[in-house]
Structures are given as structure tokens and as C-alpha cells.
Write a structure and sequence with these properties.
Length: 294
Amino acid sequence: MEVGFLGLGIMGKAMAENLLRNGFRVTVWNRTLSKCDELLEKGASIGETPASVIKKCKYTIAMLSDPSAALSVVFDKDGVLEQIGNGKAYIDMSTVDSDTSSKISEVVTKRGGCFLEAPVSGSKKPAEDGQLVILAAGDKALYEEVIPVFSVLGKKSFFLGEVGNGAKMKLVVNMIMGSMMNALSEGLCLADRSGLSQQTLLDVLELGAVANPMFKLKGPAMIKSNYPPAFPLKHQQKDMRLALSLGDENAVSMPVAASANEAFKKARSLGLGDLDFSAVYEAVKGTGGSDHAS
């Protein structure tokens, strides 16, 4: 099976490598083409433009940073729309809002192509290990066709119905995750200022009802102010903003998420946007962006 892959950031690169490891033929494109070189050595082909990848491959996956990137890859010169048509499928796994997904779906299907949105829950390590959770919506027949791809990339995939539902589910999940990260940051800060051991706090949490993989993974690194970007903070803040917008549309009061978003914005203003989203802890404890390891 041949698959096109657009976007080789932290997530996209790991996902494309997984497909290559599992015997798929993969043609990759990235806005900075030099990012393709490492995958070329691992057996990938390189497409000069998104349009050329679509032309070559029946199935093309996109993993892009935000709504504007997702739209530009489709609509710009040499973009997806120039080659999409009958017999071609486009699967956008980026985290975007439902309006962006709907716009892309509309133009792809109008040209005769098939569309699936399939954002993922998980960061760098799950992407590397093929342990993502895939939240798909759109063309049900296409979903069934690409199950072999999804079963390599993820540990579980859900089909959620019409286009937009995948985007909405991903935003709800990331909104909860961002709020939890703020709660952990406040807890670590409060423990420290109260003269308690932060590591003991993590040990206690791990044994109780709020135990979860994120606290276990991120907590020890946060204590050391160590934030290698598994999921960049600037993207978490973007997802909080999009989730709050979804709350506005549906008249859902979200004071916890709104407060968490403000903390992520503060962290961005301190220059922490490219670090892991757990670096929001630096904003919570009131330090600047200069005394952390990255």
C-alpha cells in the first residue's frame, strides 16, 4: 500500500517512520524539504509539492500544526486541490477546529475525492510507538479502507460520524488535558511553597484515584524544569483557544479551561512556546523563561 504524508513535525515524522517500518511505501512532503532527508534514508520518496504527492498516491495523510497550515496546504498554489479527484483520498490528522475540517471536506469531495478527518490523541512517544488514539470522522467507506494504516499508527481508532466530530472530540480531550496540567502545576507549586516534597506528592497521586500516565510521565521532569517538547506548549494553547471557541458556540461555561488558557498564554509570553506544554509550570510558579533546561 502506498501512502502520501504531508508534514514532518514532531508527530508527522514519527508517524511516517512507523509506516515505513511496517512495510508501507511512503512519499513525504514538508514545507522545509530538508526535513525529508532522514526519511529518504529510511526508504521514503520525496514529493516536491503537496499536489505531486496527491498525484502519486491514492491515499494521502496530512499532519500539520494548525488550521492556517491545514488550509494553506489544500488551497495554495501546488496544493492538494490541484490533484485531488476521483479515486483519491485525503486524510487530515491535524488538530484543527470543525469549521476548518468542514471547509477542507467540502472542496475535496466537490472535486470527487474522499475525505476523512482523523486527529490523534497522544504525543511524541505514542506516535513513535504506534500507540496513538485516532478520532476519525467523515467518509465511512474510506475509514474502513485505511484501517491497516490506522492499526499501525494507533492502538485504537474511533469512527465518530460526520466531519467535524473528530475535531470537536480532539479539542475536548486536549482542553481537559490542558486543565489537568495546570492543576498539577499548581499542586507542585503549593507543595513546594508549603515545605513538602514534590516527589512525595507525585508518589501519593500515583497511588490514588487521580493517578494517570501524564502526571507520572511529566511530573518528575517538571520538578527538574526539564521540558523536551513532546507536545509544544504553543500548540496546547492553540487547542485551548479553539476549545473555548467551541464552548462559546455551544453556550458552555468553561471557567477552568479559560483560566488554564490564560496560564498557557502567560507561558508563551515568557518565551516557552516551543518547549513541552508542561512548561506552563514555569508560568504558574512565576519564573521567567531563562532558568529552565530544554
